[in-house]
Amino acid sequence: MSKTNFIFFGTGEFAVGVLNELKNHGIVPKMIVTKPDAPSGRHLMLTPPAIKVWADENGIEALQAEKLTSIVKKLSTFNADVFLVSDFGKIIPSEILQIPRLGVLITHQSLLPKHRGTSPIQYAILNGDKETGVSIILSDDQIDHGKVLTQDRIELTLTETSKDLENTLSKLGGEMLARLFESLEESIEQAEPQDDSKATFTQKIKKTDGFIESEICLGLSEDEEVNMKAERKVRAYFPTPIAFTILKSKNGKEIRLQILKAIMEQKRFTPTLVRPEGKKEMSFEDFLRGFL
Description:
Elements: E1 6-10, H1 13-24, E2 31-34, E3 38-40, E4 45-47, H2 50-57, E5 62-64, H3 72-76, E6 82-86, H4 94-97, E7 104-108, H5 120-126, E8 131-138, E9 148-155, H6 162-180, H7 184-189, H8 214-217, H9 224-236, E10 243-248, E11 254-265, E12 268-276, E13 282-283, H10 284-291
Parallel strand pairs: 1-2, 1-6, 2-5, 6-7
Antiparallel strand pairs: 3-4, 7-8, 8-9, 10-11, 11-12, 12-13
Helix pairs in contact: 1-6, 5-9
């Protein structure tokens, strides 16, 4: 079923990676549904979602909807076989789930039922998982709960950042969808329910989640497990919201310090690349010499 008529729901860079891989296989959506432009950056300039930029560059109509229920009629006019959802950031209402002939497929960045919810990539890193992957499921009325059509897994090196893992999994997700399109109806019929007894759940990441105690950053903690959790935070929260600590300067002023890179060295947590608030990034050694 390589000529499947579909609409794609997505917002961020993961969705862009999935679409790029689908395009490499000659598969493009009839239309894209995404979020409205939103304030971004230091100056809070109104900025389109990454997927909207991709749609414009590829000559595909992008529908930006604040309320999905307001576009039900328009979506119905496309006679889509299936809707694809990747990194969308909104719950799909039941009125929309019922529109496509074959249903709504979600590309999720974990081996479901593990890491259901909004932050599977970050949680895989935070937990020190040795493997993760992508699941493609048939959406139902619960979050990341539907039947599984297919899963592919990858081993983790325990050095990946969230950005690295997002890039890897988005390409994998696109490849999986391209394969599915060759026998989509059969794959949907053979989809298997998840084992809810093994489900784990993720939470939305907050900026404050990235905080690391100053004692850990200065190498004063001898607790290897605590130090390893801090190192995972740095990787999990890059490029956003970015791990940070609060240190006192020579004159007693508090400095908010973003930690961009760190390593484990002799069982201790060691920042290597940092950025003081309002300053350029620098080595942690240079920061210590100049600020503390």
